[in-house]
Specification:
The protein is α/β, with parallel strands linked by helices. The strands form four sheets. It has an eight-stranded parallel β-sheet. Helix 4 links the parallel strand 3 and strand 4. Helix 10 crosses helix 11. The longest helix is centred in the middle third of the chain and has 21 residues. The chain is elongated. The mean pLDDT is 97. It binds pyridoxal-5'-phosphate. The site of pyridoxal-5'-phosphate has 10 residues, from strand 9. The site of pyridoxal-5'-phosphate (PLP) has 10 residues, from strand 9.
Amino acid sequence: MVDIMREDYQRVYAEVNLDAIRSNMENMKANLAQGTKMIGVIKTDGYGHGAVPLGKELEMLDYVWGFAVATAEEALLLRHAGLKKPVLILGYTFPYSYESLIREDIRMAVFRYDTLKELSETCAALKRKGVNAKAKVHVKVDTGMSRIGVTPDEKGLAFVQSAFDTENVEVEGIFTHFARADETDKSAAKKQLSAFESFLQLIKDRTGKEIPLKHCSNSAGIIELPEANMDVVRAGITLYGLWPSEQVRKDIVSLTPALSLYSHIVYIKEIEAGTQVSYGGTFTAASRMRIATIPAGYGDGYPRGLSGKGYVLVHGRRAPILGRVCMDQFMIDVTNIPEAVQGDRVTLIGQDGQEKITMEMLGEISGRFNYELACDLGKRIPRVYTKGGKILYTKDYYQDF
Ligand SMILES: *Cc1c(COP(=O)(O)O)cnc(C)c1O
């Protein structure tokens, strides 16, 4: 924890520890086959952690092939921030962005014939303008998600052949995505893997070509499916030190949560027995109590589902949330923490002394998903990036307009 003195960060701020990001990557890398490279999945602004600062941190690592994002804008943002490594868009990319993406050498997932045609035509148009354009693509194969991708059969093979034959298009990669690699029972994931492997073999046998970058593993696969390493793996949630699910083994790769969320007590008072707290009066004091007000709420992405159930840490101790979490404030019980005073730091996510609150715990209590909680951390929360116990930079989204 780095103590941040800035007054405009006292309301709430997220500290993102870049050393944790680095060690999570190193620990995953150590669990991979020699030669398997890594893609840092930094979609949704790096799962709420901040795509650009993380990208800068990961770009230094030679085993990081590049980055993956979900949209054209996310990809272009990385380029505008000066990141040089390959960027792959994992989802469908709409044609309006092809020209900018090709100019920036951004890779797209392909699985529709019209995409191939439009990419080729966009390159041809760029060439007429004197730009040496080529569209690098990764064919997406659907082996069990039923989301996007071509089927791993004759029809899919025809698509791959067509991609090979399309002028100005270079098939750099081919990938699939596991639907159930985060379950204890790996049979569904293994079925997907073998469908993908058979398809790769079919492509090789029938076209005589081998696609350079074959990839299928997500975080769960990186931890528990060594047979699925291939040329490159896609690390998402584990990069942030969060777990794909409670079923994934915790003893194979050691992970450290990178993000902590802090606020400060703005008001302390005593209330009498019978006093209700917050909207709806869902909590009534049974006896005289000392309560504190925290100036953050669901408007910051702090889940309302924690109402009456969650807790925060004050002076290394748990302080339960009283009544409903409001949009911008909530109340906690500090009756048993007499040293708590106005201005004290409060840990919403992270470690304080012997106690810690993880994104997984918040998900469990609020009935939400840890991935979702991270992505939902709002733009009102400034991010503070630390490395070696020092503040490297800060990011205030609230100055955007
Ligand atoms: C989001 C995503 C990932 C990363 O998944 P994690 O479970 O966060 O590791 C990998 N591949 C694809 C296609 C994705 O959409």
